[in-house]
Amino acid sequence: MKARLTRSLLVLVAGAALFAAGVLYADNHVEKPTSVIHVVTLDWAEGASKEEIQAALDGVETLAAEYDGITRVWLKSIKSQTKDAAFVMEFKDQAALEAYAGSDAQKKWYEVYLPVRGRSVTSDITN
């Protein structure tokens, strides 16, 4: 009886250790998605009003709802060391980003965005 209890306890402890190791591995595992992050840092055009700027940022969200290839957006610039602001669009893959360039959805958003955009820098990043 004592040997059975000891064996059961040993199996339980071993199982708990394996579970913990799996959790630790999962916590330390770095995901490398194949989506594309489209990062835009920009200076707003001189004279652009707060309302025009907000309409351009709202347009990013509208664009994401209308263009199937955009999966997420980040609109609130917390800190930008080189520009006035930044926003990010995540595309489901490189093909979605490439199809976006010159699309009707982009052209529609550009009607609101381009008049208030000063200088901008864009970076597209993936794995």
What order do the helices and strands come in, and which of them pair?
Layout: H1 2-28, E1 36-44, H2 50-66, E2 70-74, E3 85-91, H3 94-100, H4 104-113, E4 117-125
Antiparallel strand pairs: 1-3, 1-4, 2-3
Helix pairs in contact: 2-4
Task: Tell me about this structure.
The chain is of the alpha+beta class and 127 residues long. The chain is 48% helix and 24% strand. It folds into two domains: 1-30; 36-125, Alpha-Beta Plaits (2-Layer Sandwich). The chain has helices at residues 2-28, 50-66, 94-100, 104-113; strands spanning 36-44, 70-74, 85-91, 117-125. A four-stranded antiparallel sheet has the order 2-3-1-4. The longest helix has 27 residues, at 2-28. It is globular. Residues 4-18 have low confidence and may be disordered.
Question: What is the molecular shape?
Answer: globular
Spatially, the strands of the biggest sheet line up as 2-3-1-4
**Secondary-structure element string:** HEHEEHHE
Strand residues, percent = 15-25%
How far apart, in Å, are the first and last alpha carbons? Answer: 56 Å
How many domains make up the 3D coordinates? 2
Q: Find the structural class using helix and strand composition.
A: alpha+beta
